[in-house]
Design goal:
about 1750 residues; alpha+beta; 5-stranded antiparallel β-sheet; 35 strands; about 10% strand
């Protein structure tokens, strides 16, 4: 525990339970922009490691991330690292008075002693060349090692003579001298770990208060001491050291390097089988790795130099940095190339293939079959079109085309969608099913959804039946252009919709054709090509430089010029053509895999005759043979040469082995022939070995043949004989023996290997290990000691040299551990350097110019080539009994077995799995020969430990004939412990026998490890940057305008990086998802969080956008630029929803409508929005609420309030579409914002607003009856208003809106009549009526119409009965005339008297028979008071006194019909409904040549003038019983200029008299229809009626609060609460009399009213929901309501009154009106 967690409060979440904490400053530099950058170490701790109360110490082996940060980022993320002056400070300086500090004089004497000892050691070393080292030399080195361990003396050892001394000692052949050199290096490095971790930072942090001081400190710190890595680097770069280093010396240096890098990159590759790397190749990797790290340190240090005091010109410093960057890129390319070969990734390249990633957005979620937003590269080659039907482009208008489709389309025809509509996309095809008069009218079965969907006519293109469809090849040169007539204008290409491209993928810029850049290589491509030029030998290198100089006008080419060279593509192609001749096989393989060759070289080499087989060389064909083949050499000649040795040894097994290798196989045959000849000639073998070094595939195939079945005994012996002889040649040791050593081990482990083959194999391995101990390390890593032990046990120890081989391999155990650690450290270090380069790429926006960078990432993302075998899946195997026989389960011998010993059901096998290994298949090997020992039932359990094996994974019943029993397959969860329990045996056996176990695990890859590291670094980088940007926005909101360009640049950079370097979609999506969550999510969270004044930065920006929207129409204005930035920002933030793939869409039944309901929440609930979308919608809702609230406050009293509100709402909708696109979530937020503003209105203001909307709708409905252009304008205004009114749904204001709408709708229906528009309006805004009273009113009208039709049938039936009676009477009269006598006369008199009685009974019904004119048509509307607003008794009409006889008879007949219609047995128990006639209704009357449209009151008033010339108003009031207001309202239109009456005021008659207007005074009225119906009377919410509504609301609130208070905290279910409130309303206190009298029957309360009040109280916080049970409500806080004086409802009543039914007359005549003989005009009613 060496570190201290000092900045606990600054943490960055990196994943589940994983956080990063800033630890300390490491170094500092000046960035590319000239500002200082600081490298901060961030500790990575898991949940629980940073818990409160801990010691605050962290382990030195804890994981960490080094991150370069700017001053602003440090201030925003860890401001405590800043000093008082605002500059970054390092770890506190240790006290000067350290324990054991040396005096200066003593230190000086010791430094002189060290110098003299170094000089003496060099002299003694030169004197003892070739002899045994004397003891004085060893003593001198020992003393130097002691001095080197003293930290204050480390400055002396930076003398170059120390390096020379170490070089001579390490190169010495004497072991003791080499051992002493290692001890001296260890002594020098004893304080190096502390120096590297603390000393450098301490020196760098002493003066970091100021920039220049800190730069001097960092520069000085780099010269204090040659660190261990620098010493090793200097030693490893010596060319002669590898020649003199033996196995032990090399291991000593490697051990030092392993100790130096042990804690640098703590990365675990657990579960991944790394390949075996021999010592020499590992040393080469170490050398290149040290070189790369040294150059990287120089690059970081060079960035400090511009701030330091120096006399160098800026151009020189820039050139020096360019030189370092080029050198670092070349060194990194060499390291990657070597590492790829060491990891054998190049062997797996042909198996992995080159799968190009599709060009798609890495941030968009990938759905099956859906494009992410970037258009596809290739369009469909064929388009389907119709031979018979015309496309939409041939029609002038959409309406004409819609009519054409409507009349031409037939069921069963194929159609194509032309526009995007809801769930159907443009281009989808389907089959037409049916159509009707609904909206939309067309039903199509769509192939894309698999179900029917309704669309509009104009959206379809007719393809016709299958015989009418043809395929058209797309031949247009334009990208994405469609064949004319195939799709019309329906499917434009991406080039035609640039705005959609910008908003769909805002971070992808359009491809601009830059001819200058397209003609030259990019810097990355040129540096990759330059890498291969630098790999050439000196003559070839100079020749290539000469070619470059000739093509570049003789320019002098030095290293600095080469780095900045602009190379034309043509010149690059020439270089690629000349390079393959000059490269060796290894470098040539790298060339074939690099990007510059794949881009430019393939097509050039393919056109050259001299290189016909070079492209085939990429497919693991021997490269040198392909390159060295000349054009004049025919293939037949090569085949003849290859067939000659085949004829000589056609029967040998080796010949059969090399048959598939062509000319390369000839090398093995020649090698066998040379080795088998007497007196082996080295001149024949050595050239063949050199060829095998260049193309090792035949050699690897030779060794891999040892893993073939044991039946190939002759082949195995032949191969072992060849390999045994090859080991004696020094050139053969350079072959890749380690890559095929697993084949030798497989042959050694096989139970069927022949003893002679096994003995020869042991001889060969012993000889190989004796020559090179590196292969002993390889065998140890492969587990050879156990295999040799089993072989000795099997053959009873009678294998010669086996024990010696086992001892030699076992002694290399520590070296094998060292090699594994080194391989892990180098690979981890390379990954960290790659991640560092990616971070620099993000920070500096500079391209990555490292050769093979994409190759390294491709292999990291795709995985390793080493398969996991059975014994690599588990750590150990335990059995329930007989553990000494457990090894029989893994010996792969079907003849051996493990046999248990115990009771039935107690047998088990326990597998301890390696970390992270997911079982692909677990198989149990059994044998039917075991009879009762054979398992019958096996159960597999999994758990985290042996004590938690309680999860049953599978249970299998074993058949008696089975031999392989598959227990598990394709597990998706890792189980550390797997236990196999044998529950039952065949035939009731007790013990069991298991022949073996086979476990197949997935192939381990590096991708999980690299993904974790990549995501960690990416998340930390962008979360730190997001916090810094958020800090800028918090300080100045105007910087939010620059956020779009910042985020856009970051996303574009990540997109380009993924397209350039990442090989597959999985890696790209992982990077995109991490980047989006780390950058955009925190930014959105911060900019949508309200600050001190309650407004979020984004809310302020949206408010500014809405305010300047009108001014933004001028593209030259500042408002336009401002609005453009806001739109780009919002579109960028919402264009991606990083959520999981949505579940499959299940067709759900819809409640109403064709395709969807008007419930906005249903649109947003199709997929749960992400946190980003949720925060943005909440911010947009707040902005809309503020805008609407300000508008309502300022304009609610305006006369044109509703039109202005609709316009404001329309602007908000347009703004929502502009900012966020057509997203349902933001439309829902817009609705909620408007609703929130309406909820803030006081009750009377809200009632006034609702009345204004109801009035506006009434005016527009009545105005639409005008027709023409004015009527269409009214309909358009009505539609805009209805869209706005939808916000009322679910709000308290909906109750008052319904009240006023009901009043005005009743007046329209009764005064003007119903129309289709009424139903259409209700269908659209139906949710805004909680009691659904308007809908009930329309249904009541439909019921009345049905009754009217039944009444018509009833009248016909009565007429038929009268005519039948008349016929009977006539027959009786005729019979009476013929008879004689008094009896007949009496009977006749009696019949006449009876007839008079019948006439008296039917007198009322036959009163209209005396009417001489045409009988009017009377229609009766039976209205229910439950839904119609009929509340005043003064509207009651008495037909006996107020209607003429001919109308009264019709009314009486209808009354009799209605009473008889209720005489039904099923209705006898219910109360009898009775009719009550009202003055409501309308009539059509004939007055001369005019048709007067009047109300029922006006009709009655005018009919009085048929008998009277003058009628007083007073008599009319007395006769009708109407109120003066109602009567004067009816008289007004009649006495207007259009009316037929005049009103004359007289003193003696109150109210005046009415008389018919004299025609002589004014012109005779024109003919036609005259509308005299009284105009609509509008209510005022501020009047008594509105206050009564408020009183009712307050009373309901009081009842709810009282009931909830009585039930305490337990609360009530909402249904129970509604029932109690309704019961209290009916039985308990009720509104006062004035409320009852003003509202009439409407004072009755419904459940909807109660629910509305509950919602109101919930919004106010008076009532609360229970968290665990939302349907339960309880009282929260006190509420203040105005309680009206209450009294009993219906006082003195004993029971409920019978229900009332009101009806209205509609009268119409069926002929010419009756005209009297006088000249006076009369009124006749015909409707």
């Amino acid at each position: 525990m060496v570190g201290e967690l000092r900045y606990r409060e600054f943490r960055v979440p990196l994943g589940p339970g994983l956080h990063a904490y800033p630890d300390e400053l490491i170094r500092q530099r000046v960035g590319h922009d000239g500002h200082p950058e600081y490298q901060i170490r961030w500790l990575i701790l898991r949940r629980g490691d940073d818990r409160e109360g801990a010691s605050g110490q962290v382990d030195c082996k804890a994981e960490y991330i080094l991150l370069w940060m700017t001053n602003d980022e440090i201030y925003a993320n860890c401001h405590k690292m800043l000093g008082e002056d605002g500059q970054v400070v390092g770890r506190p300086q240790e006290s000067a008075g350290e324990v054991g500090a040396l005096d200066k004089s003593v230190l000086g004497e010791m430094e002189n002693d060290v110098k003299s000892l170094i000089q003496r050691a060099l002299q003694q070393l030169e004197e003892c060349v070739g002899a045994t080292p004397p003891a004085p030399l060893l003593h001198t080195v020992h003393v130097l090692s002691a001095y080197a361990s003293i930290e204050p003396l480390t400055g002396v050892f930076k003398d170059p003579k120390v390096l020379d001394l170490l070089m001579h000692m390490l190169s010495s052949p004497d072991y003791q001298i080499r051992w002493s050199a290692g001890r001296m290096i260890q002594a020098l490095a004893s304080h190096d770990a502390g120096e590297r971790q603390h000393g450098e930072e301490r020196e760098a942090g002493e003066g970091l208060g100021r920039l220049r001081d800190s730069q001097d400190a960092v520069t000085g710190a780099s010269d204090v001491i040659r660190s261990r890595a620098q010493i090793l680097l200097s030693l490893s770069q010596q060319e002669a050291i590898e020649k003199h280093l033996d196995f032990d010396s090399r291991c000593a240096l490697l051990a030092l390097f392993a100790q130096a890098t042990l804690s640098e990159h703590p990365m675990s590759f657990e579960g991944i089988q790394l390949p075996q790397v021999p010592g020499k190749l590992l040393f080469s990797l170490v050398k290149h790795y040290l070189h790369v790290t040294f150059l990287l340190d120089q690059l970081n240090d060079s960035a400090v130099e511009p701030g330091a005091q120096n006399n160098s010109a800026p151009e020189e410093l820039s050139g020096e940095r360019s030189r370092l960057e080029l050198e670092f890129s070349m060194a990194m390319g060499i390291l990657i190339s070597e590492l790829v070969q060491a990891m054998r990734w190049n062997r797996a390249s042909s198996k992995l293939g080159s799968t190009a990633r599709s060009a798609c957005s890495i941030f968009q979620p990938q759905l099956a079959g859906a494009g992410p937003g970037i258009p596809p590269i290739q369009a469909r080659p064929f388009l389907r079109r119709s031979r018979r039907f015309r496309p939409r482009s041939e029609f002038a208008s959409g309406n004409t085309y819609a009519l054409y489709v409507r009349y031409a389309l037939q069921p069963g025809m194929r159609v194509r969608m032309l526009d995007d509509y809801e769930e159907i996309s443009a281009g989808d095809e389907g089959e037409f099913r049916q159509s009707n008069n609904g909206v939309p009218p067309v039903q199509v079965l769509w192939e894309s959804t698999g179900r029917t969907y309704w669309v509009h006519w104009h959206m379809l293109e007719i393809l016709g039946f299958e015989e009418d469809i043809e395929d058209v090849v797309e031949v247009d040169e334009s990208r994405g252009a469609m064949v004319r007539g195939a799709l019309g204008l329906a499917l434009p290409s991406w080039r035609w919709k640039p705005m959609t491209e910008l908003y769909a993928v805002p971070y992808v810029l359009p491809e601009d054709e830059d001819t200058e850049e397209s003609e030259h290589l990019t810097q990355a491509e040129w540096w990759e090509l330059l890498f291969f030029i630098k790999k050439l030998d000196e003559p070839d290198h100079q020749e290539i430089l000469q070619i470059l100089q000739e093509n570049l006008d003789g320019e002098v080419l030095d290293d600095e010029t080469l780095a900045e060279l602009a190379v034309p593509i043509e010149l690059a192609e020439d270089l690629l053509l000349s390079l393959p001749h000059r490269l060796n096989d290894s470098t040539l393989r790298d060339l074939l895999n690099c990007r510059v060759y794949r881009k430019f070289g393939s097509k050039v080499l393919a056109g050259q005759v001299a290189y016909p087989s070079l492209l085939e060389a990429q497919k693991d064909v021997p490269l040198m043979e392909a390159l060295r083949s000349q054009p004049q050499e025919s293939e037949d000649g090569a085949r003849a040469e290859a067939k000659d040795p085949q004829a000589q040894c056609s029967d040998t097994p080796l010949q059969q082995l090399v048959e598939g290798y062509g000319p390369a196989g000839k090398i093995l045959l020649d090698l066998e022939q040379a080795l088998s000849s007497e007196g082996t000639q080295e001149s024949k073998v050595r050239p063949l070995l050199l060829q095998l070094q260049r193309q090792p595939q035949p050699f690897l195939a030779l060794m891999q043949s040892l893993s073939t079945p044991a039946s190939n005994r002759t082949l195995h012996l032949t191969v072992l004989r060849i390999l045994m002889q090859l080991v004696d040649f020094p050139e053969a040791l350079l072959l890749p023996w380690h890559e095929a050593m697993d084949a030798c081990l497989a042959c050694l482990q096989s139970p069927n290997t022949d003893r002679e083959v096994l003995q020869e194999l042991i001889f060969f391995l012993h000889h190989l290990v004796s020559v090179s101990r590196d292969y002993a390390v390889v065998l140890n890593q492969l587990g050879a000691p156990d295999a040799i032990s089993k072989a000795l046990e099997k053959h009873l120890g009678k294998l010669e040299m086996a024990q010696e081989l086992q001892d030699m391999v076992f002694k290399c155990e520590k070296h094998a551990h060292l090699y594994r650690n080194l391989t892990t450290n180098i690979l981890g270090g390379c990954i960290q350097m790659v991640l560092g380069q990616i971070e620099d790429h993000r920070r500096t926006r500079q391209p990555i110019n490292i050769p093979f960078f994409d190759v390294f990432l491709r292999y990291l993302c795709q995985g390793s080539s080493v398969e996991v075998k059975e014994d690599k899946c588990w750590e150990k195997v335990e059995v329930s009994s007989n553990p000494h026989r457990a090894s029989k389960l893994m010996d792969r011998n079907p003849r051996t077995y493990w046999e248990s010993n115990g009771s039935t059901g107690s047998h088990s096998i326990t597998l301890h799995m390696h970390q992270g290994v997911l079982i692909r298949q677990l198989t149990l090997l059994v044998s039917s020969e075991d009879s009762s020992y054979m398992p019958a039932r096996v159960v597999v359990f999994g758990g985290d430990s042996t004590n938690s094996l309680n999860t049953e994974l599978n249970s299998v019943n074993v058949m008696p004939s089975a031999s392989r029993v598959v227990l598990l397959e394709n597990l998706t969860h890792f189980w550390p412990i797997i236990q196999i329990r044998i529950k039952r045996c065949q035939q009731g056996g007790i013990d069991t026998r298991i022949r073996g176990l086979e476990v197949l695990g997935p192939k381990p890859t590096f991708w999980p490890v690299f993904r974790e590291q990549l995501c960690r670094h990416t998340r930390l980088f962008y979360m730190v940057r997001a916090q810094a940007w958020s800090q800028d926005i918090a300080e100045d909101r105007r910087s939010l305008l620059h956020l779009s360009s910042r985020v856009n640049g970051a996303l574009r950079q990540e997109q380009n990086f993924a397209d350039r370097f990442l090989p597959d979609d999985e890696a790209a999506r992982a990077l995109g998802k991490t980047c989006w969550e780390a950058l955009v999510s925190p930014l959105v969270q911060n900019i949508t969080s309200p600050d001190e004044d309650g407004t979020s930065p984004l809310g302020w920006l949206l408010d500014q956008y809405l305010q300047c929207r009108e001014a933004a129409h001028n593209p030259q204005s500042r408002a336009a630029a401002f609005s453009s930035r806001v739109r780009r920002l919002t579109r960028l933030l919402v264009h991606v929803e990083p959520c999981e793939a949505p579940p499959p869409v299940v067709a759900a039944p819809r409640l109403k409508g064709r395709n969807r309901s008007h419930d906005w929440s249903s649109l947003a609930s199709r997929g749960l929005p992400s946190s980003i979308l949720r925060n943005l919608t909440r911010c947009w809702q707040a902005a809309v609420e503020e805008q609407v609230n300000n508008f309502l406050t300022s304009h609610w009293r305006d006369e044109d309030f509703v039109p202005r509100y609709c316009e404001h709402f329309d602007n908000l909708q347009k703004s929502s579409s502009e900012l966020f696109g057509p997203r349902a979530a933001f439309l829902l937020a817009l609705q909620n914002g408007c609703a929130g503003a309406l909820l803030k209105l006081p009750f009377l203001k809200a009632a006034h607003v609702s009345e204004q909307f109801a009035r506006h709708i009434d005016q527009r409905i009545q105005g639409s009856r005008i027709g023409g252009a004015r009527g269409m304008e009214m309909l358009a205004q009505l539609q805009r208003c209805l869209e706005t009114v939808l916000v009322f749904s679910g709000l308290e204001i909906a109750t008052t809106f319904e009240h006023y709408y009901q009043q005005y709708m009743a007046n329209r229906l009764l005064g003007v009549g119903s129309s289709w528009l009424e139903g259409a309006v209700l269908e659209q805004i139906g949710p805004c009526f909680p009691n659904r009273l308007p809908q009930q009113m329309l249904r009541s009208l439909n019921t009345s119409e049905e009754l009217q039709r039944q009444f018509h049938i009833y009248q016909l039936q009565q007429l038929d009965q009268e005519l039948l009676k008349l016929e009977d009477t006539e027959k009786k009269v005729q019979v009476g005339r013929e008879a004689n006598g008094t009896v007949q006369e009496r009977e006749k008199e009696e019949e006449a008297g009876a007839a008079e009685v019948v006439e008296e009974e039917e007198e009322e019904e036959n009163e209209d028979l005396s009417y001489e004119g045409a009988m009017p048509e009377v229609s009766v509307l039976v209205l229910s008071p439950c839904c119609w607003p009929i509340a005043s008794i003064c509207h009651t009409l008495n037909p006996r006194t107020c209607l003429p006889a001919y109308l009264r008879a019709s009314v009486n007949r209808y009354s009799n019909f209605y009473s008889k219609s209720q005489s039904h047995p099923a209705l006898e128990q219910s109360p009898q409904r009775r009719l009550q006639w009202t003055w409501l209704g309308r009539a059509e009357m004939q007055f001369g040549d005019q048709t007067l449209h009047v109300s029922t009151v006006q009709m009655w008033l005018l009919l009085n003038f048929n008998d009277l010339k003058v009628v007083s108003v007073e008599s009319l009031l007395a006769l009708s019983g109407l109120s003066p207001d109602m009567l004067h309202q009816a008289i007004g239109p009649l006495t207007s200029s259009r009316g037929p009456l005049d009103l004359h005021e007289q003193r003696d008659i109150p109210g005046g008299v009415l008389k018919i207007r004299d025609g002589s005074e004014e012109p005779r009225p024109r003919r036609g229809n005259v509308w005299l119906i009284p105009p609509q009377t509008y209510l005022k919410a501020e009047d008594e009626e509105g206050r009564n509504l408020e009183k009712r609301r307050n009373l309901l609130n009081c009842l709810i609060v009282r009931i909830l208070k009585a039930h305490g905290d337990e609360g009530l279910h909402v249904d129970r609460l509604v029932c109690l409130v309704l019961e209290a309303w009916q039985k308990g206190p009720c509104p006062p009399r004035d409320l009852v009298s003003s509202l009439g029957w409407g004072s009755a309360c419904s459940s909807t009213d109660v629910l509305s009040c509950i919602l109101h109280l919930l919004g106010k916080g008076t009532v609360r929901r229970h968290e665990d049970r939302p349907q339960v409500l309880s009282y929260a806080v006190a509420v203040t309501v105005m309680e009206p004086h209450t009294e009993s409802l219906n006082p003195g009543s004993s029971g409920p009154n019978p229900p009332l039914t009101f009806h209205t007359l509609q009268i119409r005549s069926r002929g010419v009106p009756y005209a009297s003989g006088s000249s006076a005009q009369s009124f006749s009613t015909f409707r």
